[in-house]
Amino acid sequence: MLRQLPTVEDDNLLTAAIPFADAGVYRIGEECALVQSVDFFTPIVDDPETWGRIAAANALSDVYAMGGRPLTALNLVGFPTCLDRQVLVDILRGGAEKCAEAGVAVVGGHTVEDDEPKFGLAVTGLVDPARMVSTRGARPGDQLVLTKPLGTGILATALKGGIITEADMDEAIRGMERLNRAAAEAMLATGVNACTDITGFGLLGHALELAGASGVLVEIDSGALPVYPRVRELAAMGLVPAGSHNNRKYYLPRVIDGQKLAAETLDILADPQTSGGLLIAVPADRCDALRSKLRDTGCGDFLIGRITKAQAGHLQVV
Ligand code: CO
């Protein structure tokens, strides 16, 4: 049996009571708190520099999701001795390029020998605790806005299987490389109730974590789910990543009538995302303002559902 993880008791840890917070937030002053997050993973594309950019955008995303401003980052690298060192240089260059775009200083890092390459970053940022956004705070009546399409897990699986090339998933690659900074700025300028970013647990899992933390029901419109090109076609061929099955196993019990969901809806809902968009719960009267700010900066402004009261901690697809 698994033993419980140790809990931290510290009044300055502002995320202590927020389950599945995207980052840890620790108060260091009246109007100032540290936002810290770490993420690293194996390659999802072949080109090392592209992978570096995606990994950096992905790692920075958790800070943006909480309304924070990332300041510094540390590289975390696992690298096989059999691979050309130039590959490592290219990965780090991609990561550094993305951090520079974000105005984040890469202040160091650590590399270990590993059987397969792994790359990511530990990121530190700042947030005013009064302006912190989290999975907690969504209210009945809020609209749900997603800022990037879905399906990167399905595309990465097809790429690994040799069914598609990197050129075939160009739009998704550009999406994964895109920082969630502009989306976070739009969210802060609008004033929203809750936010999280969509990564490994898929829209299904992250929406349910938001539902649980906020004590609300998340209602998703199946017809409104945005996907990158070719995702539906590839999912129909059975190119569904292992993580998708884990997500279903873990999260479907909290989906109302989950066993009745269409296979293609579930494939997209449960698809683990890399560097996915922000999922934002915004008061209905500010939804148009948020969406127009998102559009103005080239972000997606997909209206995919709403928050209701019934069956707190659950998700329903309509
Ligand atoms: Co996150």
Just give the CATH class of the largest domain.
Alpha Beta
Q: Number of helical runs?
A: 10
Bound molecules: cobalt (II) ion
Structural class call reads: alpha+beta
Structure description:
The protein is an alpha+beta fold. The chain has 2 domains: 24-130, 60s Ribosomal Protein L30, Chain: A; 134-317, Phosphoribosyl-aminoimidazole Synthetase, Chain A, domain 2, CATH 3.90.650.10. It is built from 10 helices and 11 strands. The chain has helices at 48-65, 85-102, 152-160, 170-177, 181-190, 202-214, 231-236, 242-251, 263-269, 287-296; strands at 24-29, 32-41, 69-79, 105-113, 118-127, 143-146, 194-197, 217-220, 278-282, 302-308, 315-317. It has a 6-stranded mixed beta sheet with strand order 7-9-6-10-8-11, with helices on both faces. Strands 1-2-5-3-4 form a 5-stranded mixed beta sheet, covered by helices on one side. Strand 1 (24-29) and strand 2 form a beta hairpin. The protein is globular, with a radius of gyration of 19 Å. The structure holds cobalt (II) ion.
Structure summary:
By secondary structure, this protein is of the alpha+beta class. The protein is 34% helix and 23% strand.
Keywords:
alpha+beta; 11 strands; 60s Ribosomal Protein L30, Chain: A; 5-stranded mixed sheet; 318 residues; globular; Phosphoribosyl-aminoimidazole Synthetase, Chain A, domain 2; binds cobalt (II) ion; 23% strand; 6-stranded mixed sheet; 10 helices; 2 domains
Topology readout:
Elements: E1 24-29, E2 32-41, H1 48-65, E3 69-79, H2 85-102, E4 105-113, E5 118-127, E6 143-146, H3 152-160, H4 170-177, H5 181-190, E7 194-197, H6 202-214, E8 217-220, H7 231-236, H8 242-251, H9 263-269, E9 278-282, H10 287-296, E10 302-308, E11 315-317
Parallel strand pairs: 3-4, 8-11
Antiparallel strand pairs: 1-2, 2-5, 3-5, 6-9, 6-10, 7-9, 8-10
Helix pairs in contact: 1-2, 5-10, 6-8
